[in-house]
Amino acid sequence: MKIYQYDKDNHLIFKSGLNRKILNKEQAIYPLNEEIFLEKHFGIEAHFSNSKPGALANTLCLNIFKNLFKTLKINLSLPPVLTIYTRNILIDRNNAPNFCIPDTREILKDDYPFPGRSIFFEKFESLQKINDITENRYNNHKVSSPHFLASFIHEWIHSFQLDNIYTKYGYGGKCEYLQKQYPKTDSHKSGYKILSELETKTLSNFENNIIYDILGEYATSSKYQYLEVFSETMTKFICESLKGTTFVKNPLELLKKTPKEFQAILKKVWLFQ
Ligand SMILES: [Zn+2]
């Protein structure tokens, strides 16, 4: 079932952030210009594969996070590489459609390995299509938000959480880009080691029932569950704070209104306990 409907003047209304203004922007955007803009002003290497929805969604994410960081008075390092790909150039076909790599990896055929914290999105023909897929997954209780940018925001949050971990604990792995950006710290465990421990760390059945109710099925899956719970939580509250793509609430205020049991799990996940 589609959530969008028509108003009395026969205008299309979306209930998950998408609106006519954004659809017009999608038509008008030049992905190549956005790539140049992101590199020049933010040092982000973007490969949008001429995808208008991919270019616009990521540019909107950048604005959303810039505004969020201003509100929360924090500053996190932006993802080094954004890539829109098609499945036939993917080395590992079993990958999820969108993903963020914690460490350097070969992702695309005939390409160099990418640095850790890079983000990949599968190419879709339009924001409307992405909107429909996301709404559908939300209605089936798979993901935490129906917002058309939710899957993009989710991956950006992974990249920011990795920045947070590597800044705090140092990196300590083989990726040259990350070695340069995150030198060793006094911590006895490196970020690399912490992530390898987190890969299989999971919550209890009792905790998973709460996670399922609030965030949906995806956050209960076992691989990197601690990172997924954090990302799905932030995605949910960021998206619920937006009208279209503009903040009208503070996500942390929404988080404070959640049940105590849920907050206890979040604390545990944040501290890797
Ligand atoms: Zn994820």
SSE arrangement:
Elements: E1 5-6, E2 12-13, H1 20-28, H2 31-42, E3 45-47, H3 52-72, E4 81-85, E5 98-100, E6 119-122, H4 127-139, H5 150-169, H6 176-181, H7 191-198, H8 205-215, H9 225-240, E7 242-243, E8 246-247, H10 251-256, H11 260-270
Parallel strand pairs: 3-4, 4-6
Antiparallel strand pairs: 1-2, 5-6, 7-8
The chain binds zinc ion.
Output the helix-strand order: EEHHEHEEEHHHHHHEEHH
The proportion of strand residues reads: 5-15%
- Give the biggest sheet: 4 strands, mixed
Task: Catalogue the ligands.
Answer: zinc ion
Number of self-contained structural domains: 1
Which regions are unreliable across 5 or more consecutive residues at pLDDT < 50? none
Radius of gyration based on Cα positions: 19 Å
Return the structural class. Answer: alpha/beta
Report how far the terminal alpha carbons are from each other: 39 Å
Biggest sheet strand line-up: 3-4-6-5
Assembly form of the protein? single chain
User: Strand tally, please?
Assistant: 8
Shape: globular
Instruction: Indicate the mean pLDDT.
Output: 94
DSSP helical segment count: 11
